[in-house]
Specification:
This protein is of the alpha+beta class and 211 residues long. It has 4 helices and 11 strands, in the order ββαβββββαβββααβ. The strands form 4 sheets. The chain has a 4-stranded mixed beta sheet with strand order 6-11-7-8, covered by helices on one side. A 3-stranded antiparallel beta sheet has the order 3-4-5, with no helix packed on it. A two-stranded antiparallel ribbon has the order 1-2. Strand 4 (60-66) and strand 5 form a beta hairpin.
Length: 211
Amino acid sequence: MTPNWHCKLPGYSYQGDDPDGFMTRDEVVQWLAGWLETFDAPIRTYTRVSTLKPMPSGGFALTLQTADGEAQLTCDHAVVATGGYPIPVTPSFAGSLDTGIAQFHSEQYRNADQLPEGAVLVVGTGQSGAQIAEDLHLAGRQVHLAVGSAPRVARFYRGRDCMTWLSDMGLYDRPAPSTPAARRRSRRPTTTSPVVTGGATSTCVASRPRA
């Protein structure tokens, strides 16, 4: 969603020759790996944290599941970096739909071969919904896309990316709670901030087999 120049971490930023372009998935992974090489952090990859509990004396105790068994660690601070939407959301009426309709949440979708033959309805035009709809279309499926009412902005204005305009306006220098989007969300618990790639945060994919 954001151009390459927007990728910044402490002491590390994008240094490529296409700052207004968009890195692919593999390029983002490579860029992040380069950041890890700039400092000597005790990083453990592919390691599951099974428990995280506050300690009476302060800080946290956590249990790691490693190849050698469980390991116990303590820390003063813990950051749970799951993103803004870690729990899948499925509408309550989903269980009342015809059992002949296959239903998938976006987190379960991998490719078009998962779905039975027939037209497909993708609900939600957030990043997941838009990408799933495109993937299905490229696979030759008939796709219907259900959109919400979140406001939209143009990707480019006067030849410049909308994120660049927002940066020049100082939006990213403001504390998050003071932004217009945060104030709107405090009054209405749905997505109300302008979006570029869509406004849904959870996506259901439904497909009915051909008769």
